[in-house]
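Worked problem 6 (solution included).
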Amino acid sequence: MIRVLIADDSSFMRVTIKTLLESDKDIKVAGIARTGKEAIDKTHTLKPDVITMDINMPDMSGIDAVKHIMKKHPVPVIMISSLTTEGAEETIEALKNGAVDYINKSQLTGESLISKVRMAAKASISQSACKSTGCVLAAPIKQTFAVIGIGISTGGPRALSKLIPEISPAVSASIVIAQHMPPVFTKSLAERLDAESMIKVKEAKDGDLLQPGCAYILPGGMHGKVQKGGFLSLYSKEALPQYHYTPSVDVLMSSIAQVYRDKALCIIMTGMGSDGLEGIMEARKSGSYVIAQSESTCTIFGMPKAVIENNLHNEIVHLDDIGLRINKLCIAD
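Solution. The predicted structure is:
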């Protein structure tokens, strides 16, 4: 039984979320909180398995409540957000501070909410304790890299906020990131990472020419391919209907492998499911180098697990070490 605490100041939303959740026999609403402070107190007393958290509440915002909960009594939190620019910025802030996922109010259905609650109940939220000891590293390599592809999903904003600021502007490679997110959210994520990082971070545009030491986040709702000459091409979900996730990690990794072959560094990070597996298969056949994030530092060990179980990785690296590893591999001695 998954026990859920609902934190929302709207009686309508509390009733709606409770009704949707309790349509599943394996989920029980353990309690209701109407304010951020009440959410913190009830997290301590009720010890729920998952919390749904509204962003805007009286006396304390959902973001501040998440910070307190993650510091004192860590529990997987799903943010209930809006699709506005302001809502996107607030959601990115909450995800950076430990929330594991989010769901848009306009897309709130029983199926989507229950799926996210089940995923959150399995999430690992204590990632910072795992350092480099136990990290599986390959022997030194002689490859040089012109491009880095990163595929990431659930837990991505928090992981990227750790990884991207550690990358040196001296790296010789461009970085292209496929993060499963809706439109608006990827722009806010790119702007936040750009402000925190030494390298330039931007939301990718169709026709962008990849530059070394610059990270391009594919826009939500669009697929991205790297073309010959280092140009980015963007495609709508309707143009590539066979891919469930947008942006698709498979699409990105396949295109990188086809163009850059052994000069491509492909990194698969935290996320549910197996998006990226087919693209990584193609990458390995092309001589690309593959890093998978370690299980102990993933929020959800789905995407890296698929790569590792198929023995497609060259290295397994902890989150705290990925930025350092990129610098080591992509800065000339």
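Discussion: The domain at 2-121 is CATH 3.40.50.2300 (Rossmann fold).
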